[in-house]
Amino acid sequence: MRCKLVDVFSKQKLQGNSLAVFYDCQELSKRQMQAWTREMRQFESIFVDTSVTPYRAWIFTMEEELDFAGHPLIGLAYHLHELFGVPDETYTWSIELNQKVVELSSRWRGKHFLATMHQGAPEFIHTLTSKQSEPFYAALGIEQLQPQELPAQVISTGLPYLILPIEHGLSKVSFNTDQLESMLEQYQAKFLYLIDVNNFEGRTWDNLGSIEDIATGSAAGPVAAYLYQQGLTTQADISIGQGRFVDRPSEIKVELKCVGSEIVDAIVSGYVTHVGDFILSD
Questions:
Q1: Which of 32, 51, 216, 247 has its CA at a distance of 20 to 30 angstroms from the CA of residue 197?
Q2: What CATH topology corresponds to 123-258?
């Protein structure tokens, strides 16, 4: 079995969000996919079968399978372009996941590789009141930093995030709960994303606060939709920074396609850098 290691949302190695792309792995069960993800100890891994059309992919964290994620799909585009493409051409790829088909595109821009993902229209699931938001700020140890005029919202483009706004103080986070998952479930959210609305920089974690994600493509569409809907930007092109607090600076670009005031597509893009190729014994 073969595996490719790439860094996603960065032009440089050892920055951005690392990803293991497993291919030549059609015979693996989901249990084995989960075991290989734990072995590689990546925040997420992606497994792809290119013998079918559209290509079929499965995404795993070290804890569970996900129906959708961002940086694994952006990273997968690099593998597909290298396997089937010509460097100077632009390609589109259709990827079937558990619940949806995602459209990717890829091209080389000079010496850097750029991949793009269409996440579709954002779904605005819940808008929390100030009182409903309070426990989430308290869970992060930043209750004194809760803005009074900006609501928290649950938004999804495939994976529902509670978007929690903050005006400053990203460095002050200190987890005070092991109940975040059940708290989020009340509002149909899977994860929480904390966004500095002044600097467009974010942070997110697993629900125990033990692992901080480096660059979260699945949250980028919802975050950009939040910023736009709340009037925090009038630009349809938004750049989100992440990863600074784990020494893996990353940049995620989002282009919002709108018809009137309605967002009809969130297009997430980022650079991908090749790190290495491996042959694994099964």
A1: 247
A2: Diaminopimelate Epimerase; Chain A, domain 1 (3.10.310)
